[in-house]
Specification:
Length: 233
Amino acid sequence: MGTSICIASGKGGVGKSTISVNLGVALSKIGVNPIIVDGDLEGTSIWSLIGVDKSLPTIHDYLSGELAVEDVIIYSDGANFVVGGLEIDKLRNIDLDRFKDLVDQLVERFDLVLVDCAPGLGKDAVTAISSCVTMLLIVTPDITSIMNALKTILVAKRTGCTILGVLVNRSMGEYDIPDEQISSVLGFDIIGRIPEDNEVKKAGNIGKPMVTYNPESQFSQKIMDLASRLIGV
């Protein structure tokens, strides 16, 4: 029996999906058996970040009742995934009540289920958060991201989802809000800071996780450190 972590943010553009994919692959490299689930049902992107065919079975096929759990699991870059689909018609037929059933079944099969949540406080995001046991909160070191994260924290508290800590992504340096100020505002420890790296965008554009594309990069090393920290290594 495994556990579940939702990767959440108060707003889009913080690199949440990129973190989800790379963290999942990093965990697989250190002996964990993870699965990464695309919970951003309207803005799916994980399939493109791992370079798989967008016609493969998706989470939408499960949520609509068309396919079983085992039919929507795919394998790429050493990890398992449940990706989202691009067909608008499939959005009309999904049953969000089945999302928690999906996570619960995956927890029985994998060591760790990482759910890439939709940003913000929409129904998709709240459903994903409430379906998971714990949360990794992603922010960028700017005031807009941090203030929006406060609302995500409130949702986590109301749904009983335990926040593991805050990951500061896309750190650029001189004008970043310092970790101690972010921690003070949000009320949770900073468990990592990931530097901005243009190669991450390049890797994503060719459908490769950065930890596979350039494992020696500072970004990849920080993600590997985070993976080890999450499992207590």
